[in-house]
Amino acid sequence: MNRRTPDRTPRLPLPLPALVGALVAALLLSLVCGVGLGSAGLSWSEVLRYVHAGVTGAAIDRDEVAAYTIVWELRLPRAVLAAVVGAGLSAVGVAVQAMVRNALADPFVLGISSGAAVGANAVLLFGAFTGLGVWALSSAAFVSALAAMALVYAAARTPQGLTPLRLVLTGTAMYYGFSAITTLMVFSADRGEAARAAMMWLLGSLSGAGWPSVPIAAVAVLAGLTHLALAARRLNALAMGDETAAALGVDARRLRTELFVVTAAVTGAVVAVSGAIGFVGLMVPHIARILVGADHRRVLAVAPLLGAVLLVWVDILSRVLLAPVELPVGVITAVIGVPCFVMLMRRRGYTFGGA
Fold first, then answer.
1. How far is 275 from 81, CA to CA, in rounded Å?
2. What is the dihedral of CA 49, 50, 55, 57, to 10 degrees?
């Protein structure tokens, strides 16, 4: 158990406001590229004109409807949703690593994403919840994520409360259990195309993004970010151990329960619209700590922006690398994440957030 005070010293000469400003600018530029780049081959002037028409309601010619639909109805909501999902996964990664005091933890360690996969695959493979129409997939994934959360909570909780080790062990066991159910569903399905869609969802994909998906995910992520930012000082205390946290007036058990509910709700909302995208919640918190130190007030100011920028570009790559074939987003995050993670482990002086 590490009891050192979190490192509050920024590792870069840039002050935090300048770094946050640079990341905001990078995010805006990334969103522009996310809308402008794609296999359709639209010029930048066309893209900007269609975005302007979408925002202001300006008229377009009848022969431009298809191109306008690509920009306004497909690319823009997809880029925005990629940013929202990246920010949410990164923030939740920070919270989960603090909650279980484990540098290898990420939002999926609690078993919630694999629980969401059960509901999503019930829709994709067996046509469940068809009465919900376009909301069937996201609704089923979210509800099954919440059910998985309740199951993990009930199994991990003891009369003494939640402990990091029990949470990790219970979440890991549930992950394998839900994954087995999902695999069984895929193998038992007789619809080849549906099985392919299920595999895409399991590896993460934003191909189903649309404007209806954006508000729910954005509200959940914004609410989670706000809560975590307000809890940043208590996260610093929790990172130093339960006894130290208690000495500082922080109820570690209550805070851990609070974080569990917040991270589960945000993870469920994000996974419902994007599938299971790995490595973002694991990698980005470590990169943020390298940039600004381990103080959660700084980490939570930087990590969501880093995650948003990263996932917008990963989604662009997934669309253009083998166009018109689309790669699963999770494949690209793994290709980027694995070498980065190995480099982090070998980086001299980096202590994985004090763990």
1. 12
2. 100
The chain-wide mean pLDDT, for the chain, equals 82
Residue 5 confidence class, pLDDT cut points 50, 70, 90: very low
- Spatial separation of the C-alpha atoms in residues 70 and 144, rounded to whole Å: 32
Supply the pTM of this predicted model: 0.84
DSSP letters for 110-138:
GSHHHHHHHHHHHHHHH-TTGGGGGGHHH
**Distance of alpha carbon 115 from alpha carbon 112, whole angstroms:** 5
The three-class DSSP label of residue 42 is coil
**C-alpha angle 195/196/202, rounded to 5°?**
90
Q: 187: which residues sit within 8 A by CB, 6+ positions away?
A: none
CA–CA gap between residue 249 and residue 254 (Å, rounded) = 12
Instruction: State mean pLDDT over 323-348.
Output: 79
pLDDT of residue 15: 82
User: What is the model's pLDDT at position 14?
Assistant: 65
Give residue-wise pLDDT tens across range 266-316: 888 888 788 888 888 888 998 898 888 888 999 999 999 999 999 999 999
Q: Which residue intervals of the chain are DSSP H helices? A: 16-36, 44-56, 65-68, 76-100, 112-126, 136-156, 164-188, 192-203, 213-230, 232-239, 242-247, 252-274, 280-292, 296-320, 329-346
Check: CB of residue 53 under 8 Å from CB of residue 68.
yes
Residue with tokens 């279980």: 100
Identity at 110, one-letter amino acid code: L
Residue type for position 313: W
